[in-house]
Amino acid sequence: WGVHTRPIVPELQVHNLEDGGVLVQYNCECPELVEKLKKIVSRYDKYVILAPYPSMKPRIALTAWTRIDTFDEFDEGRVTRFIEAYRGIDHHR
To answer: How far from 19 is each of 6, 32, 42, CA to CA, in Å?
Structure first.
């Protein structure tokens, strides 16, 4: 959980999603955007990950188990709503 500066390997992404994690990922060399996303992700002590994902097409992707939202312009409310809706839902049951 937390802020990562390197991409997360796909197997670990799936494992984290299965455990109730939300992935906040970006595809750009964009320190301003990363800082904004970091401020949001830092509000949560667990179940949220921020990491780059260089090979994806959209600029921003939010992923939870069976859910994805992609967009190109930063929207703090959209990011926060997604995290609040899906964070911490364990799918091992």
So the answer is: 21, 30, 19
Task: Tell me the pLDDT tens digit for each residue of 9-56.
Answer: 999 999 999 999 999 999 999 999 999 999 999 999 999 999 999 999
CB 1 within 8 A of CB 43: no
Other C-beta atoms lying within 10 Å of the C-beta of residue 67: 13
pTM over 0.85: yes
Strand order in the sheet with 60-64: 2-3, 48-52, 22-26, 60-64, 67-71
Distance CA 67, CA 87 (A): 11
The CA dihedral of 62, 80, 76, 21, to the nearest 10 degrees, is -30
Q: How far is CA 89 from CA 11, 12, 59, in A?
A: 19, 17, 25
> Are the C-beta atoms of residues 68 and 62 closer than 8 Å to each other?
yes
Contact 35, 74 (CB under 8 A): no
